[in-house]
UniProtKB/TrEMBL annotation:
PANTHER family: SERINE / THREONINE RACEMASE FAMILY MEMBER, SERINE RACEMASE. Keywords: Lyase, Magnesium, Pyridoxal phosphate. Its cofactor is Ca(2+); Mn(2+); pyridoxal 5'-phosphate; Mg(2+). Its EC number is 4.3.1.18, 5.1.1.18. The keyword Lyase applies. GO terms for molecular function: ATP binding; D-serine ammonia-lyase activity; L-serine ammonia-lyase activity; magnesium ion binding; pyridoxal phosphate binding; serine racemase activity; threonine racemase activity. Coiled coil: none annotated. This is Serine racemase. InterPro entries: Ser/Thr_deHydtase_PyrdxlP-BS, TrpB-like_PALP. One of its GO terms (biological process) is L-serine metabolic process. It holds the Pfam family PALP.
Amino acid sequence: MEANREKYAADLSSIKEAHDRIKPYIHRTPVLTSESLNSISGRSLFFKCECFQKGGAFKFRGACNAVLSLDAEQAAKGVVTHSSGNHAAALSLAAKIQGIPAYIVVPKGAPKCKVDNVIRYGGKVIWSEATMSSREEVASKVLQETGSVLIHPYNDGRIISGQGTIALELLEQIQEIDAIVVPISGGGLISGVALAAKSIKPSIRIIAAEPKGADDAAQSKVAGKIITLPVTNTIADGLRASLGGLTWPVVRDLVDDVVTLEDCEIIEAMKMCYEILKVSVEPSGAIGLAAVLSNSFRNNPSWRDCKNIGIVLSGGNVDLGSLWDSFKRSK
């Protein structure tokens, strides 16, 4: 891996620098365990609770690192992004801490609880249509009008480095971990985790968890190139993005496998998080547990020796009305 460092947008050094930079502002999130879930899975599971992070999700790490990396002239003009969820809120909060403006392009139909977070943290919401082309077009217009700095939700080395700080903490908290299961969407989170974890412990396995209704990462791994989907269909609203040019090389080279899950499996894992672990997680956050409990994971001989598994509970921003409807539909 050392020889391939120049290929990637981040490395262990940039991730450690990010951790030093953001440490005064982030929560060092706890690792929870459950004997009941260990018994159900047949393994020792260690849940890294990013649902307890500021802003309710891991995204604050990367957003905070990106904002704190700006020079004074850049920061004065503010930041802009397009996001339907946790990155939007995280960037708003990071900008608020620094006292700079945050312009957030939000697609129509975004979860209300996540839009409310943006407003609560002082982000200036600018609406776009739901398509990626509309999001990018509106963001480009805001950039031209304000001179602000674009902070991409995942295809940015500063973001990847910030998200990788999760692995630094997790491997300090639980040294015996031999695999980490991470949700995958645009790939910022899993890229940072993989780069950090495999630098610290080269034998560790990194496993992506992805909805079957948005399985572009699984398809990309098989094809050996980025595959984008014309449409996605999954309850996991945080896992509908496509891989980026900076995240794909890391996913291609360092992610050992992608486990794809049906929405019903994700919902069942959410229930277990609520009922057994006593933790509020959104669908995207529960998918790692769903992966470990899936038949495709259990029956794969490649993972039999993975006895101590870290699972990133990536976020806990739940629209309770939608959640209740989902639970009722799953019965």
